[in-house]
Design goal:
Length: 208
């Protein structure tokens, strides 16, 4: 993880917080969030990754969404990151850029323009609501046509694909930058204990 003058206690705190988050990226990569972060496999999945990770943080920690400036060629990179407090200091964890630093440094480095914000509590509650609320089956003609194409492409592996999709709850959020699960369409398996998320396995899809 790239960092800027960060106490090792902060890193240990994050590793402990996110130890029960497991991510599958399409059918290409899978593993604990730290493994995929260090290998650069989460680039392009910022909405899904920040929303999956934030549920393990304190209620008033939050996701911010907005523009980062990399250089003159990339003055506005639309992105999301996690803001959290540790020992009264505020930090940013950017899992997709594999970056950890104090929030003031992050804003200085990337000349951040914030567009939206949502708390860990709001994301966690919405995720639990969607996972525990029965869904109506989509029987639209568009979906049927899509499934026919997938069946042709996958051949003998189609049934295993269907079983994998059935075993996860696909969540969706509105196109509102200040809401939970913004631009999400991932499959989630959750292990609960007393209505709290203990373990989370998330699968990123292009097709949802």
């Amino acid at each position: 993880m790239r960092s800027k003058r960060i106490d090792s206690k902060v890193v240990k705190y994050l590793i402990n917080r996110l130890s029960d988050l497991y991510i599958e990226v399409l059918g290409d990569y899978e593993g604990p969030i730290w493994k995929l972060m260090s290998a650069g496999k989460l680039v392009g999945w910022c909405w899904q990754t920040t929303e999956s990770a934030i549920v393990f943080f304190n209620d008033d920690d939050y996701i911010e969404r907005g523009n980062l400036k990399f250089d003159e060629k990339t003055p506005k990179y639309y992105h999301s990151w996690i803001c959290f407090k540790f020992n009264e200091k505020e930090y940013v964890l950017d899992p997709c850029l594999n970056f950890l630093c104090e929030k003031k440094d992050y804003f200085k480095i990337f000349e951040v323009e914030v567009k939206g914000k949502v708390t860990a509590k709001a994301v966690r509650e919405e995720l639990i609501r969607q996972v525990t609320t029965p869904k109506e089956e989509d029987t639209s003609e568009a979906l049927k046509s899509y499934e026919i194409v997938i069946k042709i492409l996958l051949g003998d592996t189609y049934e295993s694909y269907k079983e994998e999709k059935r075993s996860k709850v696909i969540v969706h959020g509105p196109e509102n930058v200040n809401t939970p699960l913004y631009r999400n369409g991932s499959g989630y398996k959750i292990e609960f204990q007393n209505r709290k998320i203990k373990k989370l396995k998330v699968h990123y899809y292009y097709d949802d």
